[in-house]
Design brief:
Layout lengths: L14 H18 L4 H25 L4 H8 L3 H9 L8 H8 L5 H8 L3 H8 L2 H10 L4 E6 L15 E4 L5 H9 L18 E6 L2 E6 L4 E6 L4 E7 L11 E6 L7 E8 L5 E7 L4 E4 L17 E7 L4 E6 L4 E6 L4 E6 L8 E6 L5 E7 L2 E10 L5 E11 L1 H7 L8 E9 L2 E8 L5 E9 L4 E10 L3 E5 L12
Antiparallel strand pairs: 1-2, 1-23, 3-4, 4-5, 5-6, 7-8, 8-9, 9-10, 11-12, 12-13, 13-14, 15-16, 16-17, 17-18, 19-20, 20-21, 21-22
Length: 476
């Protein structure tokens, strides 16, 4: 029998050498043993153990086949660098980048993403089609409400500003937009030569139209971007009548130029339009005219403060009796009167548009929400009339989101309608002020969402985040 002597193992520099040494050791152990069955079984177990050890070493070092190892050694460094660069985000084309942006959860997140670099901002700003698709897929973002005390009497030189209450949200980007804005309107306090008393007349496209009645000034201010479009002196207008209502009008969703439309009511109940155009920087004063005669021949009552601006270029004012509504075509500056449905008399309602852009009226009757749409009766030369589209009781849905008991005097108030979403507040009849819950309602699903609770006296302006001018391109 051959005597086995331990051999000195040489250090191996590769796994292949280790594999050869392990197998050689197994063969030598087989030669040194006897031919008994027990020894063979032990030898087989040893071989299997060594094979498992070899596989473990291969896995640890993640070995490649010899052909790939040699190929990787001969790879051109420039080609390797180009391949690595092709896997980075800057190598994405605008089309693929915009498809990724389209899947972001909200406009606030998109705005924050485009702040990363100039190329990303340009990709969004240069694509009107992307912005249209993004608007269609994402609901408007309510940042909060501006509240105005209806019984307050501003005193000259005593600061008087609208109070802002932010929407309670868990979205970090939306919260960042609120924190970074100037919703307390402190930017208007720097003008020391005028009384610090400002009142909000209208909110549109992220800009607030404010009036300082003591100094006869109009301001157009964006709280999110802290940008002031201008502060205009309305004393130069040849009329001593204080405007009763004002609207901020844009030609479309992406227009940068705007018009301020003020409505004044003269002592003889004639009305006059005063229009400021941002492109020219001048005011134009219309002549005092009578409101169009009502179809029933009745006396024209005063206008209420319910008004709205629409993308189709029509401005609306409602008579106090809620039986008729006068509209103004801004392009032609022509008035017309439309009869309102009987269901709106004595009801809280607002004029807005659905998700697909149709003009609609949403009203509340206690805890019932109704929707009216404009239809043309009698063909192309027919008369436009408001007709009922849907009536939905909201008792069950309201109890789902607010499991509390409302009394018989409780009801819903419609505050604003925008892009198929309705902004509501609970209220109590004949009790001002009162504790109210503020909610949003999706007209497509008729589902409610609770915003917050606050004392409410009937005057509030919903502030909805708009696209910043930096993302609207340079073609306007």
């Amino acid at each position: 029998m051959t005597t086995w002597r331990p051999r000195r193992r040489r250090p191996s520099c590769s796994t292949g050498t280790q594999e050869t040494a392990i197998k050689r050791k197994a063969v030598e152990e087989a030669d040194s043993g006897d031919s008994s069955n027990t020894l063979l079984r032990n030898l087989n177990l040893r071989v299997k153990t060594l094979e498992a050890e070899i596989e473990r070493i291969k896995e640890k070092h993640r070995l490649l086949p010899s052909t790939e190892r040699s190929r990787s050694r001969r790879r051109d460094p420039a080609a390797a660098a180009a391949g690595a660069a092709g896997r980075h985000i800057p190598s994405l084309g605008d089309d693929l980048l915009l498809e990724i942006f389209l899947r972001l959860p909200s406009l606030a997140t998109l705005v924050r993403a485009t702040c990363t670099c100039l190329a990303w901002r340009r990709a969004v700003a240069s694509s009107p089609d992307f912005r249209r698709r993004f608007r269609a897929l994402h609901p408007p973002i309510l940042l909060g409400f501006f509240f105005i005390a209806c019984e307050s009497s501003p005193t000259r030189d005593v600061p008087d500003f609208p109070a802002f209450v932010p929407a309670r949200t868990r979205d970090r980007d939306q919260a960042a937009a609120i924190r970074g804005g100037d919703f307390f309107l402190t930017s208007l306090l720097g003008r020391l030569d005028e009384p610090p008393c400002w009142d909000i007349m209208h909110v549109s496209r992220g800009y607030a139209l404010l009036m300082n009645c003591h100094a006869n000034l109009i301001a157009v201010f964006n709280p999110v971007t802290r940008h002031t479009k201008g502060i205009f002196n309305i004393v130069s207008v040849d009329t001593a009548t204080v405007p009763t209502s004002g609207l901020l009008f844009w030609e479309d969703e992406e227009s940068i130029s705007f018009r301020v439309v003020l409505l004044t009511v003269e002592e003889d109940k004639k009305v006059r339009l005063i229009v400021f155009t941002s492109d020219t920087g001048f005011w134009s004063v219309g002549r005092a005219v009578d409101f169009p005669a009502r179809p029933d021949g009745g006396e024209n009552p005063w206008l209420s403060e319910t008004s709205s601006k629409h993308t189709n270029g029509i401005l609306y004012w409602v008579y106090e009796d809620h039986r008729y509504m006068t509209s103004l075509n801004v392009a032609t500056m022509e008035f017309s009167v439309t009869e309102l449905p009987q269901c709106l008399i004595g009801r809280s309602f607002y004029i807005g548009h659905t998700k697909d852009g149709k003009t609609c009226i949403v009203y509340a009757d206690k805890f019932i929400i109704g929707v009216c749409l404009m239809q043309t009766c009698g063909g192309n030369n027919g008369v436009d009339r408001w007709v009922h589209d849907s009536v939905v009781p909201m008792d069950v849905e309201l109890h789902r989101v607010l499991p509390i008991q409302f009394d018989v005097d409780s009801e819903l108030d419609v505050l604003k309608v925008r892009d198929g979403y309705v902004y509501l507040a609970t209220s109590r009849m004949h009790q001002i002020p009162h504790e109210s819950w503020f909610l949003t309602l999706c007209l497509e699903t008729m589902k409610l969402e609770v915003l917050f609770r606050k004392t409410y006296d009937g005057f509030a302006h919903a502030y909805i985040m708009a696209w910043p001018p930096s993302l609207l391109g340079n073609n306007h």
